[in-house]
Amino acid sequence: MAKIKHNNFIDTVDEVFSDATNRGILHLYSRDIKYSGSTIKVGNRDLYHFGTTGYLGLEQDKRLKEAAIRAIENFGTQFPLSRTYISHPLYEELEEKLRAMYNTPVVVTKNSTLGHLAVIPTAIRDEDAVILDHQVHWSVQNAVQLLKVRGVPVEMIRHSNMEMLEQKIRELKGKVSKIWYMVDGVYSMYGDFAPVEELMSLSRKYPQLHLYFDDVHGMSWKGKNGTGYALEALGGELPDNVLLFGTLSKTFGASGAVLSCANKELQRKIKTYGGPLTFSAQLEPASVAAANRSADIHLSPEIYRLQEELSEKISYFNKLLSGTDLPLVAKNESPVFYIGTGTPLTGYNFIKRLTKEGFFVNLGLFPAVPIKNTGIRITISRHNQEEEMKKLVEAMIFHYPLALKETGTDNTRVRRAFRLPYLEEEKKESITEKYIIDFETTINKIEKDEWNSYIGANCFDWDGQAFLEKALNDNDLPEENWSFYYFIIREPKSKKPVLITYFTFNIWKEDMLSPESVSHALEEKRKEDPYYMTSNVLNMGSIFTEGNHLYIDRDYPEWKEVLVILFRELEALEQKLKPSMIVLRDFEEDNHLNSIFHEQGFMQIKMPESCIMNNLSWNSIEEYRTTLSTRSRRHFSKEVEPFEDKFEIVIKYKTSEGELRHLYSLYQNVRKNNYGLNTFAYPIKLFFEMSENPNWEFIVLYLKEEHDDREKREAVGVMFCYKNKAGTYVPSLVGMDYKFSRRFQVYRQLLFQTIKRARALDFKRIDFGITASFEKRKLGATVIPKVAYVQAKDNFYMESLDWIRKE
């Protein structure tokens, strides 16, 4: 089978960011001539600045500015030498002050990203292992990539999930020396804290556990000498099993980063060997001078006065928010506040409204947060005055419900997305009475002719759905039992359907559409745990069917509103079923749908290409040959036609139990060999149901006796085909004996015999489905690019699979 072309994660992020950029929300430019910190000029407007990470406002401190200016005058704009040879004169002073702040040896780096690249490959040895919190900063994750090349085991856990962390520790402790858990001290989106006390408790229970904190967002505004949240939570002294990163930028007011390391020998090795420390340029004199002056402030009582001022502002803002219905995601004493909007569309609307009112805030967007957890990130600094904060909250109180209403959502839906308590008055949601909504859990309650008229021609017809419901029910294994959910939304007067679709709920392998290398790695782990990295998915259509699973009447003036109603219905179903994700499948590129789905919290991913054949009007093989391209005709003459007489081709409608089990084993051969579309096996019951169902037939290939030297002559290939009453022939599954597949071109012959059979039955179309598009194209199929839209409850599985892909 040809390898599936997989979606590039960069493309997905690019689409999300490009959409936000086109809406004037990302990639903006400040137009300030002189910057004060309290306001920022965007376009031609001065906006109150609630988006800074300079929480104490030291970047505007006169003393830091003057020190930077003097350094430029004395030493120039840069000191262009590697620190391996010599550091410029201000470095030694800075290191001494930082050592005094942390009371440990330190390493100063150009920035935290280069710092992690220097420290992590040096501190973590080949015999160690790493566990990442899946929300730890990108710069940490990026540096860990260097360890995978060396074969260092890298695992990932859900955000701050201590139970999952302990499970990973238990799995690793007998296999490795040290186990490093890497985590942020304060997380930049929601402003939540690392569970430091619990982590230290685990490290006492498991002495192999070492901790690596990236505390750049906890720096300066918290802790003794402003050394950050993590060190304060550690009791003010750094244990031997902890490495701590702080920043000299952001709240510190200068530039650079600092590693605090209690182990002096390890600090020496990092300073000596850390790649970016050896081969990258050093900090500019102005940055070091500003950092020196900031360090003076951090070593003086003044830092506590500044921290207290900020703390009072944070408390005041918390108090203002506590009197509102705004969905604050994480309430704590952090200067980072996150107001959830749920969908990107609501986030866009809300941020635009606040901008018009004169406030600059940040949009929290995928991949920093799950796409359904879009929201507004507000940061409080000493620059912000109480009157400005009060005006911001008043603006949010006024505009938030308007943004919700204008984008077709409500507070309950947002709170549901963030697992926040519902507001009392919104616990009971009313579904719009403008439309008639039919919801069923079986096709048997849906009128057959109506289903077949609107949707049955595009995927499985009514009988096909009834077949699936029967075959995928009352089976032994969880993955063999599916639930079906049908939606019909009607215009109330005529009762004519405006939208028809169905969803299945079943267990997926999380790597189903991942590269083959990912599935190979995971299948090794599934030998011990069959359900490793699997989860329940609510999927438009089903993984058994392929085609257009959504009928929408686009001539209906308010069809977009009807789609939004479907999403509301799905959210209610999601509450009941709790899937890991919702997948909308098998769409061709469509700018209108793409915009709607994205605004409602779905991100686009590339699907394997779909293959169809519509040209079945030929009356002979010679006529068929003329429909092929010159190159495909050569392929047909060399790789397909000469092998046909090697086979006995039999069309079967029913088979004996023994033969059916053999055909099932051929299907299993292909499934196990096709990691490009990694699925659970269908139960054998499904194949017995095929054998009893008049709409199914099997194209079975036997090698003629002169080509088959086996004692028992059995089928070497089979195509399981469904006959759609609307005139579509559907080869749904394939099976092969790989001992004969290359020698006799079994797969190509199955494709050709499928084409001949569809023509003989006078079908108008063949739905060849996905995968192996290269082979199908050569026999005359049209290849159609397809996309899906995914809404995951979090980014954990996506990030975990990405890690496995990079191994």
From TrEMBL:
Residues 50-395 form the Aminotransferase class I/classII large domain. Pfam families: Acetyltransf_6 (PF13480), Aminotran_1_2 (PF00155). Signal peptide: none annotated. Residues 632-776 form the BioF2-like acetyltransferase domain. Keywords: Aminotransferase, Transferase. The keyword Chloroplast does not apply. Its cofactor is pyridoxal 5'-phosphate. InterPro entries: Acyl_CoA_acyltransferase (IPR016181), Aminotransferase_I/II_large (IPR004839), AON_synthase_class-II (IPR050087), BioF2-like_GNAT_dom (IPR038740), PyrdxlP-dep_Trfase (IPR015424), PyrdxlP-dep_Trfase_major (IPR015421), PyrdxlP-dep_Trfase_small (IPR015422). SUPFAM superfamilies: Acyl-CoA N-acyltransferases (Nat), PLP-dependent transferases. GO terms for molecular function: pyridoxal phosphate binding; transaminase activity. PANTHER family: CLASS II AMINOTRANSFERASE/8-AMINO-7-OXONONANOATE SYNTHASE, LD36009P. This is Aminotransferase class I/II. The lineage of its organism: Bacteria, Pseudomonadati, Bacteroidota, Flavobacteriia, Flavobacteriales.
